[in-house]
User: Fold this.
Amino acid sequence: VQLQACGGGLVQAGGSLRLSCVASGRIFEINAMGWYRQAPGKQRELVASITRSGVTNYADSVEGRFTISRANARNTLYLQMNSLKPEDTAVYYCKADTGWPYWGQGTLVTVSS
Assistant:
């Protein structure tokens, strides 16, 4: 499975961005997918995840501001990020689980105050 993420950039606090992650390869083996982020000097953390059947889970820090969705037919994972805060600044990674984890290359999100 290969994952290609895009959509990061520089945005002011309070703004919005939408990240996309396109999966290719053995996509029929993908179960859950998710977005993770890693800020400088910090551990990588889960932002949001979604199962094949659409069950979602969010980190407390983004609940109500971020929305994860998945277009199975287009093999694409999205993360709509609203009301962005400077503490959301990080490299965002998409992940796909087939029983084995696959990671995308990361896309940088910078939120200025």
